[in-house]
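Hey, resending since the last one bounced:
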Amino acid sequence: MMTGLRLNLAPVKEPLGFIKVLEWLTAVFSFGSCGGFIGRNVVSIFCSGGNETLDATFTYPFRLNEVVLVESNKTVCNRTLPETHLVGDSASSAEFFVAIAVLSFLYCLGAVLLYTGYMHVYRDTAFGPTMDFLATVILAFLWLVCSSAWARGLQNVKDATGTAGIRETLPLCGEPGVYCEVTEFANMRSLNVSVVFGYLNMILWAGNAWFVYKETHWHTQKYPAQHGGGRGPVPAPI
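The structure tokens again:
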């Protein structure tokens, strides 16, 4: 069996390799739109003693309980407040989502290099297609899990940094004559896009599993058997 490099771009033009390229691109968009996020909400506090503003700046991985909303001994509306943090921690779901995206990016990169340079080795053994199929199925499932987890985590971030969440976090907002409202919201469009790309990745990986399955020995053994099984009984000689 020849194991040397044989550059051939034909597999990239076929569904097997072309979908891998799409998966590579969507993985980049997934972790790029989530991992590089920086947001800032402005909280306005209206009271008889004058209006005050607070800044809530939060970034990936969204450990909101580490974000300081009110510094220690800060005077707001003629009241001295203790140090107050935002509520919530979506780091586990965000980091899981980005980890799967990076893993998919690296796997697709390696798979495309294998398809275009060592396709003859890939198809000469049953090990390569089998492992490729199992990895594709597992990653499709992981994309479903991490996208669902991150969608929930993102909703928790929106709830905690919204007006209702800020009012629950600041006891001051519940006092008579004090009204709190988030007047400037962070643009979370990129985070919404990351969730969409997450589910798109799941669809791509699930669809690609069929084309990878066709390369495995399970499919190649079944295909000739179906043709052989379609023959009718051989008539006995007269």
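Residues 225-238 have pLDDT under 50 and may be disordered.

Sorry for the duplicate.
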